[in-house]
Amino acid sequence: MTISSFFKLVELPTKVASVFPFLIGSTFAVYRYGQLNIQHLMIMLVAMLCLDMATTALNNFMDYKLAIKTHGFNYEQHNAIVKYNIKESTVKRTIALLMSVTIGLGLYLVSRTDIIVLLLGMISFFFALIYTWGPFPISRTPLGELVSGGIMGGFITFISLYIHIYDLKIIQLVFDRNMFYISINFIEVIVIALLTLPLIAGIANIMLANNTCDMEDDFENKRFTLPLVIGKENALRLFSLLYGSGYLAILLGVILNWLPLTCLLVLITIVPVRKNVLLFNERQTKKDTFIISVKNFVMISLVYFLSLLIGVLLK
């Protein structure tokens, strides 16, 4: 397998979907809590990218194995295994290697932090596996948008923040004699949850756009995704509503003084995002307009990250 075919197999450009939550979580740790651990940051970055690449490779492998329609853009051009004639054994070894690196680095990070990182990492790893693998892959159900947005936009952001502030004990597992209970600082958890909402919405919309573009192929391949269940018109409405919810979360965060005033800069992206949404509403194809969802996410997330960074510098 060549480097170019590997990059296509793991869809390297899409890793931006996990890098921005990682950057935003780490930056917020500095802004609100004044803490940053560079070693934890680097370990988390590599582990996260390996898991993301492994999940994407597994997704492409399962699409290749389960495809009923074996012709057209999505199969012959979009799937790297077919396009580059990659051996199945090579794909399996690649996935196993990436997963092994993820597990090794994850356990090392746990040894430097606490059990909460282990639990959150195990949940993320579990959903990464069942997202495309097993008897009922999530990617073939109406839950794909919820899980991808929740894990990549929510969990990654939370873990990326938590590894810097684990010693503040905003979440604790407490063992007291025969008692076991969880201690949670609800205010801080709500603050972090609000921080993640724009990212959850943006990543969910990437999956929603992907599934909306693939409705015909998904129907033939027996993938009962959200757009097939709720219909194309409702899927397009949801596409717009998710962006709106992200902007509202940022506005609320600023009003409550949980986010810096500079985060209002994100609102300038409303105009180009709205223009892109209207373009997507006119035509939904993988080749021409799917990229709009990725562009919107990158644009919103980049301004979000930079506005947080400016907030840190001003503070």
How do the strands and helices of this protein lay out in sequence?
Blueprint: H1 3-9, H2 16-33, H3 38-66, H4 73-77, H5 80-83, H6 88-112, H7 115-130, H8 144-165, E1 171-176, E2 179-184, H9 186-213, H10 215-220, H11 226-230, H12 232-255, H13 270-282, H14 291-314
Antiparallel strand pairs: 1-2
Helix pairs in contact: 2-3, 2-8, 2-9, 2-14, 3-6, 3-8, 6-7, 7-8, 8-9, 9-12, 9-14, 12-13, 13-14
Can you walk through the features of this model?
By secondary structure, this protein is mainly alpha-helical. The chain has one domain: Farnesyl Diphosphate Synthase, CATH 1.10.600. 72% of the residues lie in helices and 4% in strands. The protein has a two-stranded antiparallel ribbon. The radius of gyration is 20 Å and the shape is globular. The termini are far apart. The mean pLDDT is 89.
